[in-house]
Structure formats: structure tokens, C-alpha cells
Design brief:
The protein is mostly helical. The chain has helices at residues 29-34, 42-57, 67-70, 79-95, 100-123, 125-135, 151-162. The radius of gyration is 22 Å and the shape is elongated.
Length: 163
């Protein structure tokens, strides 16, 4: 069985909306349990995991606008958010290998993250390396040139090798 990326979240941790309330310390244990991650949905757990990954790549506590945190589009499409979403979809696809629509979504997210990382690699290489290291991403650059293999090209190549 493959471990989940959400396994490192403690079940006693409170949900994102209720963690900073001052009243939470005086509440009954049953209410705290209801507001904890033990009773949370997958979506709420993913929000917390995404927030943790964003915190890893954030330059400073007040940093909301850097490329690694915000991205070119919106917070939803950041490198960290895409990484959390890709890992969640990978876990889902291990359990449900025939789910083609989620496989397509995962591949689209992988492509979007690859494009963002490629841009970050060209613009600021040190930040790119730090982001990949913090998020545990193994980036391999695309080949410099790829030629579409056709029958005519193969015959031409074979002819050139003979001569």
C-alpha cells in the first residue's frame, strides 16, 4: 500500500478556519474533535497540505507575490499548489487505475507545472533549484530538438547509412 501525502498531517490538528480562534481553547473536547482534521473532508485536508507546501517555498512570512508562491495566473495554479494536486491525483490513480478523466487532469497539471518550472529555471535558476528541492520535484528539461519519425525519414536515414 502506498503512503498518502496527507499521512503527515496530525488528526488532532484543527481545520484551517478554526485554528486561530481565541474561543477554541475553552471549547469541549467533542467540539474540538469535530473541528479537527480527523473529521475533515479530503478537500479541507488538501487545503492545509497546499498551504504547508506554499509555506516551504515562501521567501519570507509576508511574501505573497513571488513567482513560486503566486505564479503567473492565480494562487490555484502555483507550483506548490499544483504539486499537492498532482500528488493527490497520483494516489487516487493508484487506487482507481481506470479513471481516465482524473488521469487527464493529472497530466494537464504536470504539463502546467513543467511550463512554470521551465520559465522559473530560465529566469531565476537559484530560486528554481530551491523550489525543486523544497517540494521534492525531480525536473528533467525537455530535449533540445526532437524530430518526428516518418517512414520517409527512416528510409532516407537507412540509405545514408548504407552509403
Amino acid at each position: 500500500d502506498i503512503p498518502s501525502q496527507l499521512d503527515d498531517l496530525p488528526p488532532t490538528m484543527l481545520k484551517k478556519d478554526y485554528a486561530n480562534l481565541p474561543v477554541i481553547n475553552s471549547v469541549d473536547d467533542v467540539v474540538k474533535r469535530l473541528l479537527s482534521l480527523e473529521m475533515a473532508s479530503q478537500k479541507e485536508k488538501m487545503k492545509i497540505k497546499t498551504q504547508q507546501l506554499v509555506e516551504k517555498v515562501r521567501r519570507s512570512p509576508n511574501d505573497n507575490g513571488s513567482f513560486e508562491v503566486q505564479g503567473n495566473f492565480s494562487l490555484l495554479f502555483t507550483v506548490a499548489a499544483l504539486t499537492a494536486r498532482i500528488r493527490m491525483l497520483e494516489e487516487h490513480l493508484h487506487k482507481h487505475p481506470k479513471d481516465k478523466s482524473n488521469r487527464r487532469r493529472m497530466l494537464m497539471d504536470v504539463d502546467r507545472r513543467r511550463k512554470l518550472l521551465g520559465y522559473l529555471r530560465r529566469v531565476r535558476y537559484n530560486t528554481f533549484e530551491n523550489t525543486c528541492q523544497q517540494l521534492g520535484i525531480h525536473y528533467s528539461p525537455p530535449p533540445a530538438y526532437t524530430r518526428r519519425v516518418t517512414k520517409r525519414w527512416l528510409v532516407k536515414k537507412a540509405f545514408c547509412i548504407k552509403v
